[in-house]
Amino acid sequence: MGVAELLLKRKQELIEKNKTEGLAFREEFAKQENVITLPSGLLYEVITMGDGPKPTMADKVLCHYHGTNIKGEVFDSSVRRKVPASFPLENVIKGWAEGVLLMPVGSKFKLVVPPEIGYKDREISKELGPYSTMIFEIELLAIL
């Protein structure tokens, strides 16, 4: 077996592992009280419900967020950087946008994003391999 074949085999094994472990994690999370599962597969829990306006897909939002894999390893965090981040909702992954669209300004939600509405087969970092389930805590600070 050559190097290319070995790398492909390892990637396939990682994909299968990530899919299996991610599904098990999502199934357990879905059993928790106050967790809502949407038809897309997005799961969310309201930590704090704000009373401001809700954004639309045409909006740019200002958020604090903390993103981890299912093992709790951080792959991205505006909280750690201590600087909120702004994003046009049309430019973020589907699962992130879908969750933020549910949030009135002032809200904080926990989102569990399956890979199909996340990064799919892309390897984003050592913490976030192909077909990884992501967990985000997002606080919607403002609509810009």
Classification by helices and strands: alpha+beta
- The total domain count is 1
- Oligomeric state of this protein: single chain
Distance between the termini: 54 Å
- How helical, in percent, are the residues? 25-40%
CATH architecture title: Roll
> How big is the Rg?
16 Å
pLDDT averaged over residues:
96
* Separate helix tally: 3
Strand content: 25-35%
EC number: 5.2.1.8
Keywords: Isomerase, Rotamase
Catalytic activity: [protein]-peptidylproline (omega=180) = [protein]-peptidylproline (omega=0)
Enzyme class: isomerase
Write the SSE topology.
Elements: H1 3-30, E1 35-37, E2 43-48, E3 60-68, E4 74-77, H2 78-81, E5 85-88, H3 94-100, E6 108-113, E7 134-143
Antiparallel strand pairs: 1-2, 2-6, 3-4, 3-5, 3-7, 6-7
Structure characterization notes:
- This protein is α+β, with helices and mostly antiparallel strands.
- It has one domain: Chitinase A, domain 3.
- Helices cover 27% and strands 29% of the residues.
- Strands 1, 2, 3, 4, 5, 6 and 7 form a seven-stranded antiparallel β-sheet that branches.
- The termini are far apart.
- This is Peptidyl-prolyl cis-trans isomerase.
- Keywords: Isomerase, Rotamase.
- Belongs to the FKBP-type PPIase family.
- It comes from Faecalibacter macacae.
Task: Name some characteristics of this structure.
144 residues; alpha+beta; Chitinase A, domain 3; seven-stranded antiparallel β-sheet; 3 helices; 7 strands; globular; PPIase_FKBP_N; peptidyl-prolyl cis-trans isomerase activity; rotamase; EC 5.2.1.8; Peptidyl-prolyl cis-trans isomerase
